[in-house]
UniProtKB/TrEMBL annotation:
Pfam family, one: Curlin_rpt
Protein species of origin: Vreelandella janggokensis
Annotated InterPro entries: Curlin_rpt
Protein name per Swiss-Prot or TrEMBL: Minor curlin subunit
The entry's keywords: Signal
Protein family: Belongs to the CsgA/CsgB family.
Cleaved signal peptide residues: 1-38
Lineage: superkingdom: Bacteria
């Protein structure tokens, strides 16, 4: 095998341009190493007894990338026949607020926020014999979504709001 030597001039990068790229890369790494303020995240999960045989429980995941985001999860189930609840909140941006409250069992709630100043709330009350599922997806800025559902039967609600102009109308969904 014959090795070839790469000439910087043949790649179109002059020594001055190379130094400038290195300086830009160094500055970018300094600014991205600054601490990120992911303010308020709170998870509360309650149950009366632990089912060790079936490993039933409440599960929650909160991912936050940005500044001044707030996420709250409150989940509970109380009967031994009930399955646990699952929630996930993902916030990418700044000044986003998300709340999930689930009572009973077998509830599934997901909030995805990309952008700034979004508000979303999911409230669900079910039991283990039914599945209540709610998904919220927000992108852009300044959008508001509220979902509330309760009762019997299998239900699934998906709401996606793209507020790229920043003037999205509020969305409220209630089922009982």
């Amino acid at each position: 095998m014959k090795r070839q030597r790469v000439n910087k001039a043949s790649m179109g990068i002059s020594p001055a341009k190379h130094s400038m790229l290195l300086a830009t890369l160094l500055a970018a790494s300094i600014f991205t190493a600054a601490p990120v303020n992911a303010d308020d995240s709170r998870i509360e999960q309650f149950f009366n007894q632990v089912d060790i045989n079936n490993y039933r429980g409440n599960y929650s995941i909160i991912d936050q990338i940005g500044n001044n985001n707030s996420a709250t999860v409150n989940q509970s189930y109380s009967a031994s026949y009930q399955r646990g609840n699952f929630s996930k909140i993902f916030q990418f941006g700044n000044f986003n607020t998300a709340n999930i409250a689930q009572k009973g069992g077998n509830n599934f709630g997901v909030i995805l926020q990309k952008g700034n100043a979004h508000e979303a709330s999911i409230t669900q009350a079910g039991d283990a014999r039914e599945l209540l599922k709610a998904n919220v997806s927000q992108s852009g800025s300044n959008s508001y979504i509220q979902i509330s559902q309760s009762g019997s039967g299998y239900r699934s609600i998906n709401v996606e709001q793209n507020a790229f102009s920043g003037n999205a109308r509020p969305v409220t969904v209630e089922t009982y």
